[in-house]
Specification:
This protein folds into two domains: 123 residues; 103 residues. The protein is built from one helix and 16 strands. It has 253 residues and is mainly beta.
């Protein structure tokens, strides 16, 4: 084996998880409704501000965003610490702060409020290796008002296989569930994800699901007040078998 220079290419660090997901989301078009005016202003090398006025038929909004970046540099040419805050005309606030603890370790804290009430806290610790990124995330909704979110985790293991599920109620409107099922008889393993959205003002409940067999389903329940009727519309699409199943139900109660 000679002493020539190796031509093997070295893997680079992929960056943060947030940036990787954003690259995919940037490909998709964003829905536009109404008229939007955005004004960006660079106040200095460290401060930036943005004003957004959105006029629409649903709900006009004004957003103010402020960003700060410090003098501490990292290998990725990013500046730390970083702070970002955004407030709208209703008083709701989104804020996050990112600090560089060491050359390879970053810590981020983020929280969200809905008017005067705290909605979500989230803490992330990220380690960047030479060719990989590892992240640990801790989330605790509504930690200030001591209204803890509800969650249930289950695991069953037997001769027939294994079944695990996780249910989480984020708030009064959003509920999610994740399921895993493995059968030793059919040698089949299935992952499934489901969610439920409650819209009390519209008397509607929507449930959606997606599993590893590429079966996508949705169910919409609408209470036809003041009549004692509930209309349910449902549809499921099996992409692998190219099969569509749909129907509706009328309930008198």
């Amino acid at each position: 084996m000679g002493n020539g220079t190796s031509t093997e290419r070295r893997l680079r660090n992929p960056g943060s998880f947030e940036r990787l997901h954003r690259r995919c989301k940037d490909v998709f078009p964003q829905q536009l409704e109404g008229v939007k005016l955005i004004i960006n202003k660079h106040l200095s090398n460290h401060f930036q501000a943005a004003h957004t006025i959105h006029l629409s038929s649903m709900s006009p909004h004004y957003h103010f965003k402020a960003m700060y970046s410090g003098d501490q540099q990292a290998d990725s040419d990013e500046s730390f610490p970083q702070a970002l805050g955004e407030v709208d005309s209703t008083g709701s606030l989104n804020a996050q702060c990112v600090a560089l603890l060491a050359n390879r370790i970053r810590a981020k804290a983020a929280f969200q409020t809905q008017q005067e009430r705290f909605q979500t806290w989230q803490f992330d610790t990220e380690y960047r290796g030479d060719s990989f990124t590892a992240t640990i995330t801790l989330g605790n909704p509504d930690i200030i008002s001591e209204s803890a979110s509800h969650w249930v985790g289950t695991l069953n293991i037997g001769r027939g296989g294994a079944h695990a599920s996780y249910y989480h109620q984020a708030n009064d409107q959003v509920q999610v569930g994740v399921g895993f099922e493995a059968s030793t008889q059919t040698q089949d393993t299935t992952f499934s994800f489901g969610y439920q959205l409650d819209i009390p003002k519209a008397n509607m409940v929507f449930r959606g699901s997606l599993d590893s067999n590429w079966v996508v389903g949705g169910l919409l329940e609408k209470r036809l007040a003041p009549l004692p009727l509930t209309l349910t519309l449902g549809a499921f699409i099996d992409h692998l078998r190219n099969k569509l199943q749909y129907g509706f139900t009328v309930t008198v109660c």
